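Section 3.1: Structural characterization of target chains.
Under the original work plan, the team committed to producing a structural model for every single-chain target entering the pipeline before any wet-lab resources were allocated. The record below documents one such target. The sequence was received from the expression subgroup and is listed exactly as submitted; it comprises 157 residues.
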Amino acid sequence: MDARLNLYGNPLAAKLVKHINSAGKVVADSTLPAATQELVKIRASQINGCGFCTDMHTKDAAHAGETSVRLNLIAAWREAKVFTDAERAALELTEQGTRIADAAGGVTDEAWANAAKHYDEDQLTALVGLIALINTYNRMNVIIQQPAGDYQPGQFG
């Protein structure tokens, strides 16, 4: 299986990805916990059916020490006891922010207020930015049918 476009060999695509990655570095360097960042990336990628990002972020999370139990339960986080209240709030915001077109009002006030109980303004900014960025990557990879399964932790630097 080959991708429809080579995001790594096309100069315009490389420039675009470079700028998206720069925004991602701002989030990665924020005070939003790294484990939460990976949970958010995985959940949005699951919802969007992005195999490439799901593969990448589950492997990165495992490499960083995330447990297989938590990784296996991300899609069923509401019923799982293994996530903190803060992580659950981030996952809810992720789901609503990813499925924004499914709700007439977008993200609910309740989901926002719950996240705001657990995260400060900088962390909320990082969380919102991360949800937007992973959805961008998911859409790019799904549109071009980027193959999944070969990612190795750290291969992009």
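DSSP finds seven helices and no strands in the chain.
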